Amino acid sequence: MIRRRTLLSTALAATAAIGLAACSKDDSGSSASDGGSDGGGAAALSGVDVSDDLGSEPTVSFTAPLSIDAADARVIAAGDGATLAEGDTVIMRSMYVDASTGETLQSWWQGAPAGGLQVTSDGLGAEAFAFFQTVAVGSRFAMAGWQQDSSGNAVSLVQVGDVDRVVSPLRAEGAEQKPSGSYPKVTLGKDGAPAIDGPGSGDAPAKTVREALIEGTGDTTRKGDYLTMHYTGWAWETGEQFDSSWERGAPFSFVQGQGQVITGWDDNLLDLKVGSQVMLVIPGDEAYPADSGSELAGQTLIFVVDVLDAAHTNA
């Protein structure tokens, strides 16, 4: 369902942690756990100084080029919130520094998007999964490792991240709204997962239609947000479900307005309060155009979206 692009020319992924998750320069799968190195040499972060003032942008100092023979991670300043647990959806603010030059490539404090991750072994790898379960909300951590650039080359990086919060609840909450009745009826399971009562009827809309189902009470979404949501999608003509973050067991996140997702999402998930649920009916040219090569090319699609979190830029 998702059409992803890299965020910046350096191809840094604000939606993921580097280092332990990236494993090794050759992607062989070897990596190091908290504060250590698996190669017998000095831990990569032993020569890196990171400021622990959580009220300001991190300062990162080291003698470049920094040698990273094995991925490394450590907590710089411990937060006083709950320790992250398996399955948590985490929002954080990050800075990425080029280990070869010491140059800051991307920083939330300088206007880059926020980011986040899910604390799962499948998503992070065993080493990062173990490390993040030692990190508390409010902490600052550092990781040294690698990330692929847009050419597929491994770039050595130091990432500093401030863990801001865990997303909760993981379903829309607010005042129920009265839909128009022109589109399929939505019912919710006990966990909040949506279902529709059949396909669309009549002519599909020529432009994306947004209908409010639940109005939340949280902050309002805007361009540049790191948006976290649950969604399910169905084909208009058949009512057949083709995708659902609910069934994968984890919300989906992306940076709003960066072309990472279909146009119907980018343009129509703005100015919504966190906690809201909306139905989007999206024609093919605002979803997957006829020449896109997608299995859904040219089809009108129905989505029900729960807006769970909107992490703003530091504009």
Automatic annotation (TrEMBL):
A molecular function GO annotation: peptidyl-prolyl cis-trans isomerase activity
Family annotation (Gene3D superfamilies): 3.10.50.40
Family: Belongs to the FKBP-type PPIase family.
Catalytic activity: [protein]-peptidylproline (omega=180) = [protein]-peptidylproline (omega=0)
Name of this chain's protein: Peptidyl-prolyl cis-trans isomerase
EC number: 5.2.1.8
Domain PPIase FKBP-type: 224-311
Signal peptide, first to last residue: 1-21
Upper taxonomic lineage: Bacteria, Bacillati, Actinomycetota, Actinomycetes, Micrococcales
Entries under InterPro entries matching the protein: FKBP2/11, PPIase_dom_sf, PPIase_FKBP_dom, TAT_signal
Keywords, in A-Z order: Isomerase, Rotamase, Signal
Species the sequence originates in: Brachybacterium rhamnosum
Stored SUPFAM superfamilies: FKBP-like
Domain of life the protein comes from: Bacteria
